[in-house]
Amino acid sequence: MKRATIFLALLALTSITIGCDDKRIQNLEKRVSNLEEKTKQLESDKIKAADEASQKEFLLKACVADANDQYQKNIVSNGTKGRGGTYSLPITAMNALDRQKQSKIEECKLLYR
Questions:
Q1: CB burial readout 23-51, b (16+ within 10 A) else e
Q2: Is residue 113 within 8 Å of 60, Cβ to Cβ?
Q3: Whether 112 contacts 59, CB under 8 Å
Q4: Among residues of the chain, what percentage have pLDDT more than 90?
Q5: In sequence order, what are the beta bridge partners of 81?
Q6: pLDDT tens, position by position, 6-57
Q7: DSSP labels for 37-96?
Q8: How far is CA 44 from the centre of its chain?
Q9: Average pLDDT of span 71-86
Q10: What is the DSSP letter of 33?
């Protein structure tokens, strides 16, 4: 009876020590670690893409604002000032300025979209 108890105790002790060295747990830990690294990389890429999109949008708006400012300066420099702060230009000059402004805006779209 005493031998049977000792044998069972040794068997239980052996089972406990062998059971702790499960290779599947190590593989799972490696997989979890790899997935965490991939998740961090994807989050970083997402933030970077959002920053780039925000910067492009800002540059597009600045470029269009520059085109509008240049258009207004051209009207002031080529037109004659009337009452109420308006300017008058010949139709051909106005059409040329409109085309120039639209061309600049299209250039902005090509550069920053």
A1: eeeeeeeeeeeeeeeeeeeeeeeeeeeee
A2: yes
A3: yes
A4: 67
A5: 87
A6: 766 666 666 666 655 567 778 888 899 999 999 999 999 999 999 999 999 9
A7: HHHHHHHHHHHHHHHHHHHHHHHHHHHHHHHHHHHHHHHHHHSEE-GGG-EE--HHHHHH
A8: 9
A9: 92
A10: H
